[in-house]
Specification:
Layout: E1 4-9, E2 15-20, E3 25-27, H1 36-39, E4 49-53, E5 57-59, E6 65-67, E7 70-74, H2 80-92, H3 94-111, E8 118-123, H4 134-167, H5 172-192, H6 195-211, H7 215-230, H8 237-269
Parallel strand pairs: 1-8
Antiparallel strand pairs: 1-2, 2-3, 4-7, 4-8, 5-6
Pfam families: DUF4807
Length: about 270
């Protein structure tokens, strides 16, 4: 199978080899502590590549074979950013990769007939002034600001939710407000993408349901979050303790509710 071998040198005396064919791009393991002179069998500048055609193998007396190579040397000044774009498109675009392979084979065939494989040896040229990707910086800045605002909103909602939850044991409207705040926290947690925070918000909702005497739904939420946390690869100890604490509150509030119901039933009968 015909292919192009691309040997990439960096300023840290490291080397990476890519094999590019019409179908795919394969990457060989990184070779370290190899100088340019060890890997480059010819003259080289700060940047450039060399095409080597492999054909006409010569038999040696010890049984090995030696390639009678004819070298076609080209020079190219290219910075690291431009080369990264080239490699990215080479990996992800089939049509571009096929055009690149066809171009170099045709170019080598015109100069040296019967060429089968081509090697490109490239030395990366690091410019003194690095290029700043302003569009990417704007995207990252927007995401950072959004995350900061979400964290700030989550902190305020946690403070208000805790206050209303404390009053929810005595006032029903405070329990309702604590439940609405927990739902807002849940929506923010989904945007933040933090599974632990999402689980905590669900437990806050369960706590609000307990205060409104909706024990079955609260029990289902607590059991689900407890088993999800327990079966995860790295269980959150604080989340497990939180589940156990709210479960104890559920049992106690249900006990008081059932006790109050029995007393009211006895008073009606009397």
């Amino acid at each position: 199978m015909n292919y192009i071998r691309i040997i990439v040198f960096s300023s840290e005396n490291t080397c990476e080899t890519l094999y590019v064919s019409f179908d795919h791009v394969a990457i060989k393991a990184l070779i370290e502590n190899k100088s340019h002179c060890e890997m480059w069998d010819g003259d080289f500048d700060s940047a450039g590549f060399e095409i080597v055609t492999h054909h006409d193998l010569i038999a040696l007396p010890d049984g090995d074979q030696k390639s009678n190579q004819k070298k076609l040397k080209f020079r190219l000044v290219q910075n690291v950013l431009a080369f990264s774009y080239f490699i990215y498109i080479l990996r992800h675009s089939n049509s571009y990769r096929q055009r690149v392979v066809s171009y170099w084979f045709k170019k080598a065939e015109n100069l040296v007939p019967r060429t089968k494989n081509v090697s490109l040896k490239i030395t990366l040229n690091y410019s003194a002034q690095q290029i700043i990707d302003h569009m990417w910086c704007e995207r990252i800045s927007h995401l950072v600001m959004e995350r900061a605002e979400l964290d700030n909103a989550m902190s305020w909602l946690s403070t208000l939710g805790g206050a209303y939850s404390a009053l929810g044991d005595h006032f029903s409207h405070c329990a309702d407000m604590a439940g609405r705040i927990s739902l807002q926290q849940f929506q923010l947690a989904l945007r933040l993408g933090d599974p632990s925070t999402v689980a905590r918000c669900k437990l806050y909702i369960a706590l609000s349901l307990i205060q409104k005497n909706k024990f079955k739904l609260a029990r289902k939420i607590i059991e689900t979050q407890y088993h999800l946390c327990l079966n995860s690869t790295s269980p959150d100890i604080r989340l497990l303790r939180m589940c156990k604490g709210i479960w104890s509150k559920l049992r106690y509030e249900r006990y008081l509710y059932m006790k109050a119901g029995k007393k009211s039933h006895l008073s009606v009968n009397v």
